[in-house]
Design a protein that fits this description.
- The chain is mainly beta and 529 residues long.
- It has 6 helices and 31 strands.
- The strands form 6 sheets. Strands 11-10-9-13-18-15-16 form a 7-stranded mixed sheet, with no helix packed on it. The protein has a 6-stranded mixed sheet with strand order 22-21-24-29-26-27.
- Helix 1 packs antiparallel against helix 2.
- The protein starts with a helix and ends with a strand.
- The N terminus is likely disordered.
- CU-O-CU linkage (C2O) binds next to strand 5 and strand 30.
Length: 529
């Protein structure tokens, strides 16, 4: 160990932990991770780690596929729950899965048979700007009765999703979202182009789980949140909400906080109580693709007696799988994980957030030959029950590195608002009255995020993959590839990307009430002549 090199890092480290402790309630996963990181820091991957500059979309090498999405309005009756006018896509609530192979040229006809203007955004897919679905930035909204043809190459591979991008606080919770899974071309490893030997394991069972919430009166208030300015928002909900809660809502949480009362918790459009158990056949393994499609709520999932082996976040491959005892998903985040049970039996995937008790999914695991233990990973030794860590980006990144990678441009992004008025801002501006940030094509760009507010902001960049390179000033050992990152109260974070997809791109909070109340901005650059 090189002590000279360690010292500054340690200092930065303790300082960061101190700052976080000072500002936040105990129990905050990041703080815990920072505090209990006593081991010597290994040589950092961020030394010499460079931003991968993948092309925004590969040439269409696959087939051309035509997909037709017909959007209608219709009453949805939830088993044991309310009936309300919702959106359906091809008759389905929520929208059906799109499954493509990387490199396919997709031609998607979106037929609007509703009374509302709409667009679709392909979240996490690197489309050209004109296909990105942002109203008045990429395209005009599709008027009632008309059809818009989206055309783009399906890339990059991974768990993506698609959703409406007009009147999001109504249209998304009322059904305009679906999974968009891009598989690697046959014979290639999932998300691991460097490995040609196939997938780590073949999944006997794959479950795509889209978690979403609705207010108790979906017709009049689909998010179940304060969307009008009838009082202070923000408040202390974030501090009082208990561990993991961190007040995603931007409204008064009250003492003991937790999730807002009376929300409906849906799994793939069914109330969690009616969602059938996931069955893992004898000797089989279960792969989960979790998508947080809630407009406002984070989820913090655990499965007592089992743990999760995470290999993709937001659909992007991690350098190696990481075991976790629980998973935290802010709105729009995705996690791909193997469900690892050490014995046969019935398990429950449930939320640790107070007030989210209704969110519960059962998993029935049958083992083929006695109680054989499934492989926990492919090289790093096995992870025994109880040793898996609690979720944090920190753990995901393998701890601290020593240096940030070099970039060409640094752009501060200060997230604030919500104090006395229902207005949320980036660098003091509320969308659409914003000054676009201009960058140059080909630049390596660093956004320096600072959450100067008391609630979480899950920030999403359109059209690009970015890497989380530091948290609270501490470089991460293995930068995390994402398209949506949850920035907690008073937290600083850097996210780096390569400007390789010229256009005008939205950067916004995916807590949709915050977005509607202004927390969005534009980043733009032209193709160099
Ligand atoms: Cu999934 Cu602009 O968002
Ligand atoms: Cu926000």
């Amino acid at each position: 160990m090189d002590d000279e090199r360690l010292r500054p890092t340690r200092r930065a480290f303790l300082k960061a932990a101190g700052v976080a402790l000072f500002s936040l309630a105990a129990g905050y996963p990041l703080v815990r991770a920072l505090i209990r990181e006593p081991k010597p820091i290994e040589p950092a991957a961020t030394d010499g780690w460079a931003l991968p500059s993948t092309p925004p979309w590969p040439p269409a090498v696959g087939r051309e596929r035509r997909i037709r999405l017909v959007v209608t309005r219709d009453v949805v009756r939830l088993p044991g729950g309310p009936s309300f006018p919702a959106f359906r896509v091809n008759g389905r609530f929520p929208a059906p899965e799109i499954r493509a192979t990387e490199g396919d040229r997709l031609i998607i006809d979106v037929v609007n048979r509703t009374d509302a203007p709409l667009t679709f955004h392909w979240h996490g897919v690197h489309t050209p700007p004109a296909m990105d679905g942002v109203p008045f930035v990429s395209q005009e909204p599709i008027p009632p009765g008309e059809t818009f043809v989206y055309s783009f190459v399906a890339a990059p591979r991974g768990t993506r999703w698609y959703h409406a991008h007009v009147d999001e606080v109504r249209q998304i919770p009322l059904g305009l979202f679906g999974p968009f899974i891009i598989d690697p071309p046959a014979g290639e490893a999932e998300g691991r182009p460097e490995e040609s030997g196939g997938r780590p394991w073949e999944a006997e069972a794959e479950a795509i789980l889209m978690l979403h919430t609705l207010g108790p009166d979906p017709e009049n208030n689909p998010v179940g949140a304060l969307t009008e300015g009838s009082g202070p928002v923000g408040g202390m909900g974030g501090m009082m909400g208990g561990p993991g809660r961190m007040g995603g809502m931007g409204r008064m949480g009250g003492m003991g906080g937790g999730a807002p009362p009376n929300l409906l918790y849906l799994v793939n459009g069914l109330p969690a109580a009616s969602f059938p158990p996931l069955r893992v056949p004898g000797g089989g393994r279960l792969r989960l693709r979790l998508i947080n499609a809630s407009a406002t709520e984070p989820f913090w999932l655990e499965a007592p007696g089992a743990h999760f082996l995470v290999d993709h976040v937001d659909g992007n491959a991690l350098p190696e799988p990481v075991p976790f005892g629980d998973l935290f998903l802010a709105p729009a985040e995705r996690i791909d994980a193997w469900f690892v049970a050490e014995r046969s039996g019935t398990f429950a995937i449930r939320s640790k957030i107070p007030g989210q008790e209704a969110l519960r999914i059962s998993v029935e695991v049958a083992k083929a030959d006695g109680e054989s233990i499934p492989p926990s990973d492919r090289g790093g030794g096995s992870h025994l029950p109880g040793t898996a860590e609690s979720w944090s980006y920190w753990a995901l990144a393998g701890g601290a590195g020593t240096a940030l990678p070099a970039v060409d441009r640094v752009v501060p992004m200060v997230l604030s608002g919500g104090m006395m008025m229902p207005v949320w801002t980036i660098n003091g501006e509320a969308y659409p009255r914003v000054t676009p940030t201009r960058i140059g094509e080909g630049e390596r760009v660093r956004l320096e995020l600072f959450n100067h507010s008391m609630v979480d902001h899950p920030m999403h960049l359109h059209g690009h993959t970015f890497w989380v390179t530091s948290i609270q000033g501490v470089p991460l050992r293995r930068p995390i590839p994402k398209d949506t990152v949850n920035v907690r109260p008073m937290e600083r974070m850097t996210i780096d990307f390569v400007a390789n997809n010229p256009g005008r791109w939205l950067f916004h909070c995916h807590q949709l009430v915050h977005m509607e109340q202004g927390m969005a901005t534009l980043i733009e650059y032209r193709k160099q002549a």
